[in-house]
Amino acid sequence: MTNKVRTRFAPSPTGHLHVGGARTAIYCWAYARGRDGTFILRIEDTDQKRSSEQATFGFFEDLNWLGIDWDEGPAFNSCGGGDVGPYLQSQRLELYKEHLQTLFDNGLAYYAFETPEELNEKRKQARTEKRAYRYDRAALELSEAQVKANLEADMPHVIRFKVPDDAVLAFKDEVIGDVEIARSELDDFVIFKADGYPTYHFAVVVDDALMGATDVVRGQEHLNNTYKHIVLQDALGFERPNYAHLSLIFNPDGSKMSKRDKDKALRTFVKEHSIESPPNGCIPQDVWEHWLSSKDNQLQTDEASDLATALGVSLPEINVDDFKAAGYLPEVLLNYLCLLGWSPGDDIEQFDSAFLIEKFSLDRIVKSPAKFDRAKLLAFNLDAMQALSSEAFEERLLEWCNEYAPEFASLGNRFSLFAKANHERSKTFRDAIETSKFLVEPDETLTWEETKPVKKALLKGELTGLSLLPEVATRLSDLSEWTHASIDGCMAQCAEELAEGKLGKVAQPVRIAVAGSPVSPPIGDTLVLLGKESTLKRIERCMKFFGSKCDA
RNA sequence: GGUCCCAUCGUCUAGUCAGGUCAGGACAUCAGGUUUUCAUCCUGGGAACAGGGGUUCGAAUCCCCUUGGGAUCACCA
Length: 552
Prior knowledge:
Blueprint: E1 6-9, H1 19-33, E2 38-41, H2 53-65, E3 73-76, E4 79-81, H3 93-105, E5 109-112, H4 116-128, H5 144-152, E6 158-161, E7 170-173, E8 177-180, E9 190-192, H6 200-210, E10 215-219, H7 226-236, E11 242-246, E12 249-250, H8 260-272, H9 285-293, H10 301-311, H11 320-325, H12 330-339, H13 353-359, E13 370-371, H14 374-387, H15 390-404, H16 406-409, H17 415-423, H18 429-434, H19 452-458, H20 465-478, H21 484-498, H22 503-515, H23 523-530, H24 532-551
Parallel strand pairs: 1-2, 10-11, 12-13
Antiparallel strand pairs: 3-4, 5-6, 6-9, 7-8
Helix pairs in contact: 1-13, 6-7, 15-17, 20-21, 20-22, 20-24, 21-22, 21-23, 22-23, 22-24
The protein binds one RNA strand of 77 nucleotides through helix 4, helix 6, strand 13, helix 14 and helix 22.
């Protein structure tokens, strides 16, 4: 093994990649890339209950979307490979057993037969006595014959690590600095579970060593675990990697950003609006009831989003693919995520991954936790969107629409103008379609809501917008060609002759008439996009709709 | 509760390790201005060293205490 940098990102396949995990992956990746090192992806799937192949796959996509590629790990697109695999822990059982044997040989591992229930009792006990629970080493008292008999009787058992009394429980963290705990804080933890799989602690130590990880960058929730890892490394004769523990990412309200936030948002909405059954049967009744029966019952990802759609609730973005669906640029998410806990200095905030790779270092990582600020992300996204050439914007908007808004993707030769009309006013790709829904709405079904701005533009004032509409419609219909120039000219002329030169007086009623809302792209774009026929038909319908309202 | 970690504008942070410019930037916010809607865009303003003790000529920076926040205490990772 060379002494080159080797970092690894080791998620457990329990759902999609969330922003905290993404940030860790970005740091690991950037650190390796900037040092001519190797970035490894390893899947920690030793928990059979929680692993699923589909979730693993989701990770790959999310990582790729962010522009993160791995040199070694599971094969995906052009990523993966490597000769210290396999990179799925579930396929490395033999390796773990080999090293477990080393521990047995040195008298550093032993069988324990307590049931989870027994252990839980003792934990509860410890809690009521206001002290931390530590395993009492009861299994160490068992005679060799007893252990043998238990094993032969197939009694369920775990294997614990016998932490040496003189174990050194101190290390230097690249972010935090020197840390240590007292020997009494570490008990003989489980290294092999009753199902025959290693625990996280054992697997991670063996894998990091065998895969030659030089730098372990991970979340701060692992800081206390690290003591377990270093005693295991010492016992197995492994070299110790550098550690860097990252502070956590929180919601603006200070709560931990978690997948549960979505469930919480739905629950709150349902409760506040006293909704008693799933709207339009978007999810099965039994699923609905099961979900509401306990806070611990979470909806599946797709069930949650179906319900959210049906209720009209927007779920908080937590996972990387949530931000993708919301229409953010991957390079912006990457940029913003980096800033949560790291900065290049020199007042530079917006940068690309090449810059990140060049500048990233562990010593500039901030120790304190950060709150995720969507407003800033949005501002960054706007800047990046505007910096895109119109060709690039169109291409990427189309790509996005293909996945999330196919009705816009099939706009055909109108797509280009649709993109241009929305480029500078969109903070996200989704923004572009939100204010252009009228484009994919049939002329016949367009409706008007009598909101304040609508009434103001159409019905208020001495000269109402509605009264202008017939004349404007006539002039528009007289136009021999339907272009920006002709339309804008016509509108300007109408304004001049009918509304004291106030363009808004004319444009706004027309906008509302054809778009059904007071917000749409510039009026010229809007009308060209719609075409002459639709425009006139919509104005006609609008006049009828509001005309009857007036009579009533 | 035990243990560990953290603490600069509302938020992300620069400055801390090698004490010494009115504590800098960005987002948000507020006040003006541009604009046919929305969104942009332009100009300007307010806004922080958690508190208390030390060390020092001098402390955001070093030390201690208090307070506050977080993580962890699994046969989950």
